[in-house]
Amino acid sequence: MDGVLVNFYGGVKGYYPEFDSYPEERQREITAELSAKHGFFIALEPIPGAISAFKRLSEKYDTYILSTPDWNGVNSWTEKRIWVEQHLGNAAYKRLILTHNKGLFTGRALIDDRLRNGVDNFKGEHIHFGTEKFPDWKAVLEYLM
Length: 145
Prior knowledge:
By secondary structure, the protein is an alpha/beta fold. It has five helices and four strands. The chain has a two-stranded parallel sheet. Strands 3-4 form a two-stranded parallel ribbon.
């Protein structure tokens, strides 16, 4: 969800413009802090093309959203659900799965921007969003449709 449907890092950089220059440990602290902040996630913008792409994919595939919320940021758990309802509506009704191990799931494909949280053990194809092969939703749709 973060970095694929939701412009999470754009929201982070609104608070911390130099975010990319921080060490990884500090980046994790910052994202945890912001994930816990009431209203942060709900206010995030969609990735360009994500909403229409999700809806198109939902017409062809049995589409779910796997997302890893911040364990200590209870707002993260609730606000991800609210964001999905506000931006995806009926196309994603009861289609959100919050997990810290995406490798427990099986499917045609998992579209994710990282290899963490079990993505490398997902039983299906990993479409690595934001890479040279899949830089945006247009490329993903061309591949899957």
